[in-house]
Amino acid sequence: MKPVALFVLPNCKWCEQAKVYFKSKNIRYNLVDVSKNKQALKDCQKHGCKGAPVVLIGNRWICGFDKNKINKELGIK
Question: Domain 4-11+18-74, what architecture?
């Protein structure tokens, strides 16, 4: 499986939904809090993402919690 990173903010309901979804699908991921990691925040912004969560799968950036894009990138039906 491609490496997955989840960039989140504290108290973000969409971030929490992404975590729950990844757990339900047994998707392993690295969790990055962009409120504590300014370089990660810059990386997300550089790829056009303005809010949280941001999902990085391999080298593909997905802005927001978009199940369809996540599933397609990971080959989940």
Answer: 3-Layer(aba) Sandwich (3.40)
